[in-house]
Each structure stands twice: as C-alpha cells, then as structure tokens.
Amino acid sequence: MPDNKFLYWAGIASVPLLALVISNEYKARRVTNRKPITSFSAHPEAVPIPTSTLFEILMWIPNIFSIENPTNSVKEKGLVSRWSLLGLPMIDLGGAEALDFLSACERQKLLAQNWPSSTVDYLGNVAAVKDGAENTFHRNLISGPFKQPLLGSYVPQIEEITRVIVSRELETSVMDTVDVAKRITISVMLGCIFGIKNITSADLQAELSEWRLHFQNYQDGLFSVPIDLPFTAFHRGKQSKEWLKQKSILLMKEQVIEWENSGRNPAFETFFVQLYNSKDEFGNPLDESTIGDQAMLMLFAGHDTSASVIISLVSFLHDHPDALERVSQESYDIFGKEPQRTMQYSDLNKLTYLDAAIKETLRIRTPVLRVLKKTLTDLTFDGYHIPANSSLSFNIAGSGYYYGADKAPVDQFYPERYLDTQHLEDNQLGFTPTLQPFGFGKHSCIGKPLALMELKTVISTFVRLVNFKKVKPHTEFTHFPIAYPKGEMLLDISSK
User: Fold this and answer.
1) Binding-site residues
2) Which InterPro entries does the record match to this protein (predicted)?
3) pTM of whole model > 0.90?
C-alpha cells in the first residue's frame, strides 16, 4: 500500500464513480426498408441517432472490444450506434459501407484525429496526434526507415534475429509464444530501426529485458485512466516513457558521432541519424524531446502489434495443419529445407500463400479493433444525421470480416479466400477495400511495409526451423488493448 493512505483509499473509492460517468446514450437500430443515404451534409430525411438506458450500455461494455461484437452488431442491428464514455458522446460505425464512407470523408478532409487531450500529451509531438499539413510533415519525418534501400536491408537482419531467438528456445524444447514473439519484434525495432548492433548477443539480453519492461509500462499507462499519482499505471507509464526517451537520445548521440566520422550519406543511415539531419516545420533542427517522441511512436506502433499477429498466425497454423503444410512447403520450395540460404527482400513476393495466411489472420483477429475520428461538418450516413464535432468510433475489425463468405464460412481460417487476385483491388500491398487492418487515410499506419515484411520473414523462418505443437490445444484471446492470448501459449518444439 502506498505511504499516502488517503490517496490510496480515494483511488479505490473512485472506481464506482467512474462507472457512473458512462452515460446512457447507446443504442443500435437496424435500418430497414429504406435505401441508405450517404452524403457530406445533413440530408433532409436524416434522423437523429437514438439513445438508450444506462443498463443497456453497461450490459454492452464487456463486448466492446471483441471481434464478434462489431460484426454481429452490424449483421443484427445495423451500421450506426451511439454511446458515451466518460461523458463524451461517441457514434459507432460498422461494416464495409462505413469504411467506404469514412475513406471518402478523409479524402474530402472532413475528419480529424480524436485522441483525448491526456493521450495527446502522453504521445507527444508526433504524427498520430496531428492533422492537415502538420500530420503530413510528421509522417514524412519518420518515413525514412520504411523506404528502399533501407527497408530491404532489414530482411537478413530479421531472419537472423528470428533464427537466434528460436534456436535458444530449442534448448528447453518448450517455447512461450508470447514471450518469443515480443522478443523478436522488439529486437527488430531496436536492431533494425534504432540501430543497436548485435541485438541478439547474450551480452545485450539484460538490456533488452529492460527495454521491454519500460515499454510495457509505457503502453499500460497509455491505456489507463489518466490519473498522475505515484501508484497509478499512468504515472508509471510516464516515468517509463522518460526512460525510453533518454535511452533513445543517447543512442542518437552515439550514432551521430559515428556517422559524422564516416562521411556517409545520412539518407542511408539509421532512423536516429535521419532525424538528427531533419528540420522542424520552421526549418530548425529537431530538439531532443521531439526526437524521443518519434522513437516512442515507432516502438508503440511497431512492436506489440506485430507480435500480436505473429502469435495469432502461429495459433491458426497449428489449428489448421493443411494451411501449415502449405506455408512450410512454400518456404521449402524457395529456401530449401536447410535454413542456410539468407533471405532477401526480393524473395518475399514469392511467398503468396503465406501472404494470404497473413491477410486471413488480420481479417479474423485484427490487433487493434477501433479507430477514432471527429467530424468537421454535418454528415449523413445510412440515413442518420451525424452532427459536426461528433466523435466517431469505427469498428475496423468488422469491416472486412465478411470478405470471401462465398468461399468459406467467415469464422473459418481459410487463406485460400485471398488467392483470387482479381478481387484484390485497392492498394499496392494487396489488401481489399474492406480489409484495412492498418487503418486508412492520413492516420493509417506508416510502418505497414515493414510490418508485412517482418511477418513474412519471421513466420517463414520459424516454420523452417521447428516442428511445434500447443501444450494446451485451445487458446483464448483477449482483444484490449491489443489482441493477445489470455495467459501463456506454450508450444512443444523440436528441431527440423
């Protein structure tokens, strides 16, 4: 118990009060026998979104972060619902139609980011909390690591990181999938993006664990109630963020000294050297705090989300032996059964079935379920009036859930539904218009190319290294704040 008992008991007493702050404004209603109306101004026929009772919203809250809730809500009740969290009215949109509508609104510049002010302060001076020209500037600021030739150079590094970490697990024959996936993805971020050399060496394992601990505190703080008291997750998160920022700044200084002595082109250097050579909106060098904030955004966006997909895909492949056999055989055909040939960026396009398996994983178990937006003008969607300055919550997990329903049941893991390329229209990375797990518009994930490259490299390497079997056949997942197993997911592994 903290030394200040008054603060401790005050915190305990505040829990029921927080529940009462949730207002009585949720209702989902199916729109029937009417052609949906989608426009960028209030339509004369648009109706207000109905509200409901406090009891109804309290009954609904436990399912808000499940995959099934958004999809079933859309299927059974319609595309629009209204609720309120911490006194802030929130309009929830679901389904592929909502994705089309919001994407069009983004192109028309009718939406803005909608982070709470405490989250904006917590994240700092980064693209995720910016709009308009500021957002574009900050996205360009951190885009260097996701462009060629740097992007392609990461593939051999990611393969080596995966090989070393998984090979160590073979010594015990039992692998904690969550722990290994997180070690791989944070090693990729620190080794490839942050430029820490020999990241998998035994000498750096203690430091790697420290980075992971502080990152976990940082993430827990971001998704906690923003009460800055010594015993709260929010306070611990802020302290860990400062630790992470200071470590990042030290790395930058070390790498800048090495770069200045080398005379190399900064465009081909590490993320930190690129930031050091960048300017802010006013043409001034970036200050250390801004550089630290950019580093935190990189970690937050690129570590846990990638680990989540790795874990889910390994689980799906275990539960579907035919799919595992196809992924493994495809990797053998390209690289051989002996894991000696180094992977290259050009190899990744050949992994077509693995690519489909990744898409199927993202369809069924999207790491992040929702995106938040704010309307800048009156809108109409599905016959409902959405006033200006409304907060929108979009069920990104449900938007592509029904893709390929004509090929297999939507609750079935069936990568083959993505092998018919004539349906893959929308973008350069081959996602369908309705499957956008990396978000959409100006706040979409800028690290999408790195994430897909990392997933292909890690899984292809993993299936060539080991045979694996779950210790417990069934794995239950939670979906907030990011999709992860509830507890451990242990695998019995053996060398191939």
Assistant:
1) 445
2) Cyt_P450, Cyt_P450_CS, Cyt_P450_E_grp-IV, Cyt_P450_sf
3) no
